[in-house]
Specification:
mainly beta; Immunoglobulin-like; Maltoporin, Chain A; 22-stranded antiparallel barrel; five-stranded mixed β-sheet; 60% strand; globular; receptor
C-alpha cells in the first residue's frame, strides 16, 4: 500500500490523537488515590527476589517485583489493606498496611521456604535457595508465571548452570527454542521453528544491529553470556513492542547494581581443551557492582561493570558434495575440508543507575562485544569427469585449495533513559543506538592448485564419503597453481531510535485499568562494500614458481583420511603482494554486491490492561510506517556498462493484539492471545543489485527485489500452566501462525517483462504459509523421599511443529507449484536435563535435540534437490564443587557424545555436508562474594 505525503502526516496526527485521548480519559477520572506504597522482597539472607507477585488483596491490584526485588503501587486510596507476597518455593507472606496521605516505604519483606514456615521454632528457619540449579529455575519460573503474555525466561544464574559460552547456546535450553550452529557453536536462534531472520533481538529495548551482510538476524555468538542479567523471549506480541518478528522477540536485559542487595563481585577463570585440534582455550571474566550515596541521597547511584575475554582454538573435519548429485548416474563433485580456527571474544558492559527517591530513575546501559576469527581452510576438491557411484573409479581433476581469512565482528549498544512517576502517571523517555560491523580485510578467498588424473579416482561410503585415489594424489608434485582469488569485504549496520511512553493507572471498584500510549522513531542504515581480485594467468606475469611444492608446508591434520601437504598462506600472500593488485581487480564482482539500504520507521500505539480478580486482559493496536531508500549497482554485460539502481518505497501497517490470562487457581493459569507479527525482507533480498549477462544468445539476469512486501503473520496462542506448590511447572501451549507474503527465490523468465529471458532469478512474495505446533514444558524438584533423591531436579521440554508453504514457478508458459515446509523448521525440538545438587556438589547432564529440517530449497522445480539438515542430538555435562561459600570449582564437557553435523540432498543417503567437531573439556574456578 502506498501513501501520499499528506497521508504520511496522518500517522503523526494519529499518535497525537491517541495520546490526547489517553490524557483526557486520565484527567477526567476522579482522583481516588492518596499515597504510593513501595517496598522490596528478599529472602532471609537479603538476596533479592525478582518475579515475586505482590498484591493488594482488597483492591485486586498486582505487581511483579523487578530484578532488584522492588515493587511500587503509585497511588492507593487511604485505608487499611492486606499486602500479600507469593513466590514459587516460598511460603506466602501477608502483612497489614495502612495508607494515609504520605508515601509509605515498607521495610524489606523477608520470605522463607515453606518448610521453614511449617517449622515450630525460628531456629529451624530455612532460607529460600536463590543460587544453584533450583534457585535459577525458581527465578525464571516466577517471572514466567506473572508475565502478561507467553514469556520464556533465562536468568543470569540459569545461564551459568550449563556449559554455554554465548547467549545463543544458552537459549537452546528453553522451550520452543533451538539454534543454528556454525563450526559446532550455536550462533542464530530459532523461535518455534521460525528461521532467525524472522525473530527480533533487542538489548534493553533497542533492536540490535546485525553484523552480517544480507541479514537482519543477529549472530548471538558475538555476545558472552557473562554480561547479562537475564534473557526473555516474548512469544506473544503486545502493541508496546516494536514490530520485527513473527516467532518471537529475544530481549537481552543487562545487569544493574540495584539487582544486588549489596556490593557484588565475581571472578571466573577457566581453560578449555578441544580434542579435535588438541589445543587449549583460556577464558577470564569478571563482574563488579556497587551502590553509592549521591546528591544527598543514600544508596542512590549504582555502578555495574562486566568484562569477558576468551581465546578459543577449535576446528572441524568436513566432507561435502554441495548437492552435486545426478541421481541416475551418481556423484559429480565433492570436497574434503579441514578447518583450523582461533577465535578471540571480548565483551564489556558498563551500566549506571541514578535513583533519587522512589519516583525518579535515570539510567545508562552500554554493551560492546567483538570477536575475531583467524580461519584457515585446507581443501581437496574432486571434480569427476563423469558421474560415479560409490566404489567406481575414473578420470578426474583434483584441486588442492586454500582459504584463509581474519574476520572481525562487533556489536555495540547504548541506551540512555529516564522513568518518572507523578501521581498515577508514569512516563519514560529513552534514546538508543546500536552498531554492528563485519570486517574481512585482504584475504585469500581461494588459492587453487590443479592436477588431472586419467583414472583411479572415486569414492566410497554415503554420509561420510571417503576419497579413493592413487597415492601420488597426496603428493605436492604435479599440482600447478591455476588462480588465486582475494577478497576484502566490510559490512556495517547502524540503528538509532528515540521513544516516549506514557501510562496511567485507574483504580476502580471492579478492577484496575492501566492505559498506555507512546511513539517511537528509528533509523536503520545497512551498507555493504566488497572488493575482489582474480590473480590468473600468472605465468604470463612472469611468475615462475607455480608448483604446489613451492607453497607447501607440513601435513594437513585431517581426521577423516589423508589429504597431503598443507598450502602455506604466508607464501600465497607473498606472491600476490609481489604483483600490482590493481591489474587483477574483478570489476563486476567488486561492484555488484555493494549496496546501501536506509529505513526510517515511525510508530505509535495505544493499549489498555485490565485486571480483576482472576482476569487480566491486554488489548490495543500499533501503527508503523516505513520509508525505505535502497541503492545498488546494475551491470549490463552485453554493453559492459555499470549504472546506479535505486528504489524508494513507503508503506504503513496496523498491528492489533489481544492477550488474555485467567487464573483457575493459585497454581493454574490459562493463557490466550491473538496478535499480529511483521518481518521486513532481509537485505540480501532487498539489495537492488542487477546483473545482466548473455550466454550463447540467451539473456540471463539475477537481481534483488527492493519492492518486496513485508511478511505478515496473524498469531493464535492458547495454553495452560500448572505450577507446583514447591518448585515445578507443567505447561502446554498451542500456537498457530498464518503468514502472508512468504518470500522465496524464483525464476521470472517468461513472465511479463522477462519474456525474452532464459533465466531471471530474484526474490518474490509468494502465497500464504502457515506454522502450527504444541509446546510442552515440565520442571520438577524431587521432594519427600528424605534421602539423596530430594536433591534431584528434572526439566524437560518438547515442541512439536508443522508448517506449510507454497512455491510457484512458470514452466513453458504454465504455472506449476509444489508444497514445502518453512526453512529451518524442525518437526520436533526437545531438551532434557537431569540435575543433582547438594550443599557442596552440583551435577547436570543435558540433552538437546532437534529433528531434520529444510535448510534450503536446492531447485525450485524439483524437491529431490532440497537440502535438509539431519536430526541432531548433543549431550553436555556440567559439574560444580563448592570449596566454600564464595569459591567453586567447575568441570564441563561440551558435545559429550561427539555429535557431527550432517546435511543431505533429498534423501539421507545423499551427502550434502558431513562435519565433525570433537569434544571440548573445560576446567574453571569462580570466586563470588555471595
Amino acid at each position: 500500500m502506498k501513501y501520499s505525503n499528506s497521508l504520511n502526516k496522518s500517522k503523526f496526527k494519529l499518535a497525537a490523537t491517541s495520546i490526547a485521548c489517553t490524557l483526557a480519559l486520565g484527567l477526567a477520572t476522579p482522583a481516588l488515590a492518596d499515597a504510593p506504597v513501595s517496598g522490596r522482597v528478599v529472602d532471609n539472607r537479603q538476596q533479592l527476589l525478582a518475579g515475586a507477585e505482590v498484591s493488594i488483596v482488597e483492591l485486586q491490584l498486582k505487581r511483579t517485583t523487578a530484578a532488584d526485588g522492588r515493587f511500587l503501587f503509585p497511588k492507593l486510596p487511604s485505608g487499611n489493606y492486606t499486602l500479600r507476597v507469593d513466590y514459587l518455593g516460598a511460603a506466602i507472606s501477608t502483612l497489614k498496611v495502612q495508607v494515609a496521605d504520605a508515601p509509605l516505604l515498607l521495610a524489606d519483606i523477608k520470605l522463607s521456604s515453606k518448610s521453614a514456615a511449617n517449622s515450630a521454632t525460628s531456629s529451624q528457619l530455612e532460607h529460600i535457595e536463590v543460587t544453584g540449579q533450583s534457585g535459577a529455575m525458581s527465578k525464571a519460573l516466577n517471572r514466567q508465571r506473572n508475565a502478561g503474555g507467553i514469556v520464556t525466561v533465562a536468568s543470569t544464574d540459569e545461564l551459568g548452570q550449563f556449559p554455554d559460552s554465548n547467549v545463543s547456546e544458552a537459549l537452546q535450553r528453553l522451550a520452543g527454542l533451538s539454534v543454528e550452529r556454525d563450526q559446532g557453536e550455536g550462533r542464530f536462534v530459532r523461535v518455534r521453528g521460525l528461521a532467525p531472520d524472522y525473530n527480533a533481538v533487542t538489548y534493553n529495548g533497542t533492536q540490535l544491529a546485525a553484523p552480517e551482510a544480507g541479514r537482519r538476524a543477529v549472530a548471538l555468538d558475538v555476545i558472552p553470556s557473562d554480561l547479562l542479567e537475564s534473557v526473555e523471549v516474548n512469544k506473544t506480541l503486545s502493541p508496546d513492542m516494536p514490530a520485527g518478528s513473527l516467532g518471537g522477540t529475544v530481549e537481552i536485559k543487562s545487569l544493574s547494581a540495584f539487582d544486588r542487595s549489596s556490593d557484588f563481585y565475581s571472578l571466573t577463570a577457566e581453560n578449555g581443551y578441544n580434542e579435535l585440534v588438541s589445543a587449549h582455550s583460556p577464558k577470564v571474566s569478571g563482574v563488579y557492582s556497587t551502590i553509592l550515596d549521591a546528591g544527598g541521597e543514600t544508596d542512590a547511584f549504582g555502578i555495574a561493570l562486566a568484562g569477558s575475554y576468551a581465546k578459543r582454538k577449535f576446528g572441524s573435519d568436513n566432507v561435502e558434495t554441495g548437492g552435486s548429485w545426478d541421481f541416475d548416474e551418481g556423484l559429480e563433485e565433492f570436497e574434503l575440508r579441514d578447518y583450523q580456527i582461533s577465535r578471540e571474544r571480548i565483551g564489556l558492559a558498563l551500566n549506571l543507575d541514578y535513583r533519587p527517591g522512589n519516583n525518579s530513575e535515570y539510567y545508562l546501559r552500554s554493551l560492546y562485544s567483538r570477536f575475531t576469527d583467524a580461519e584457515q581452510r585446507q581443501g581437496l576438491i574432486v571434480e569427476l569427469a563423469d558421474p560415479l557411484q560409490a566404489g567406481q573409479t575414473g578420470e578426474a581433476t583434483l584441486i588442492r585449495s586454500l582459504k584463509q581469512r581474519d574476520e572481525a565482528q562487533s556489536i555495540s549498544a547504548l541506551v540512555l533513559g529516564t522513568k518518572q512517576l507523578v501521581g498515577n502517571w508514569e512516563w519514560l523517555l529513552e534514546a538508543g543506538t546500536s552498531k554492528a560491523d563485519e570486517d574481512t580485510p585482504f584475504n585469500i578467498a581461494a588459492a587453487n592448485f590443479e592436477q588431472d588424473f586419467d583414472e583411479g579416482v572415486g569414492f566410497t561410503g554415503q554420509q561420510q564419503i571417503k576419497l579413493t585415489t592413487p597415492t601420488d594424489a597426496y603428493l605436492a608434485e604435479g599440482y600447478e597453481l591455476d588462480e588465486v582469488e582475494m577478497g576484502d569485504t566490510f559490512t556495517k549496520e547502524t540503528e538509532r531510535n528515540a521513544k516516549f511512553d506514557l501510562s496511567r493507572e485507574i483504580i476502580q471498584p471492579n478492577g484496575a485499568l492501566q492505559l498506555k500510549t507512546g511513539f517511537k522513531l528509528s533509523q536503520r542504515e545497512k551498507t555493504a562494500d566488497e572488493q575482489v581480485w582474480a590473480f590468473g594467468d600468472l605465468d604470463e606475469e612472469g611468475v615462475s614458481k607455480l608448483g604446489l611444492s613451492d607453497y607447501a608446508t607440513g601435513t594437513v591434520d585431517y581426521g577423516l583420511g589423508p589429504m597431503g601437504q598443507a598450502i602455506d598462506p604466508a607464501k600465497i600472500y607473498a606472491l600476490v603482494n609481489s604483483l600490482d593488485r590493481n591489474d587483477f581487480v574483478d570489476e563486476v564482482e567488486s561492484q555488484i554486491n555493494n549496496y546501501q539500504v536506509d529505513e526510517d520507521l515511525s510508530a505509535a500505539y495505544l493499549m489498555a490492561q485490565w485486571e480483576r480478580e482472576q482476569w487480566q486482559l491486554i488489548g490495543g493496536v500499533r501503527y508503523e510506517h516505513e520509508q525505505r531508500d535502497a541503492r545498488g549497482v546494475r551491470y549490463d554485460a552485453t554493453t559492459e556498462v555499470f549504472s546506479q539502481n535505486q528504489l524508494k518505497t513507503s508503506e504503513g501497517y496496523w498491528l492489533p493484539a489481544l492477550i488474555g490470562r485467567y487464573n483457575l487457581s493459585e497454581q493454574s493459569i490459562v493463557r490466550a492471545a491473538v496478535s499480529t507479527g511483521l518481518v521486513r525482507p532481509n537485505f540480501q533480498q532487498l539489495a537492488p543489485a542487477y546483473l545482466l549477462e548473455e550466454d550463447d544468445g540467451d539473456l540471463e539476469a539475477s537481481f534483488g527485489n527492493p519492492a518486496l512486501k513485508a511478511l505478515r503473520s496473524t498469531n493464535y496462542d492458547l495454553g495452560f500452566e500448572h505450577y507446583a506448590d514447591e518448585l515445578g511447572v507443567l505447561s502446554g501451549m498451542l500456537f498457530y501462525k498464518q503468514i502472508s507474503n512468504f518470500i522465496y527465490e524464483a525464476d521470472l523468465a517468461g513472465q511479463p517483462g522477462y519474456e525474452e529471458f532464459a533465466k531471471a532469478e530474484t526474490f518474490i512474495n509468494g502465497a500464504d504459509a502457515s506454522l502450527y505446533g504444541l509446546e510442552l514444558n515440565a520442571v520438577h524438584q524431587v521432594a519427600g523421599y528424605g534421602n539423596w533423591l530430594d536433591q534431584l531436579l528434572i526439566s524437560a521440554n518438547l515442541t512439536i511443529t508443522g508448517s506449510d508453504a507454497e512455491l510457484d514457478w512458470l514452466d513453458d508458459g504454465d504455472w506449476q507449484q509444489r508444497n514445502t515446509s518453512l526453512p529451518s523448521q524442525s518437526d520436533r525440538t526437545a531438551n532434557l536435563a537431569l540435575g543433582y545438587e547438594s550443599d557442596l556438589l552440583s551435577l547436570r547432564l543435558a540433552a538437546n535435540y532437534k529433528s531434520a529440517y529444510l535448510a534450503e530449497v536446492g531447485d525450485l522445480t524439483d524437491s529431490a534437490y532440497d537440502v535438509y539438515a539431519d536430526d541432531h542430538l548433543q549431550l553436555d555435562f556440567s559439574s560444580k564443587y563448592k570449596i566454600n561459600s564464595g569459591i567453586q570449582l567447575y568441570f564441563n564437557v561440551v558435545n559429550l557424545n561427539d555429535e557431527p553435523y550432517y546435511a543431505y540432498t533429498g534423501r539421507q543417503a545423499y551427502n550434502f555436508q558431513y562435519e565433525t567437531y570433537g569434544r571440548t573439556f573445560v576446567l574453571g574456578l569462580q570466586i563470588t562474594n555471595w
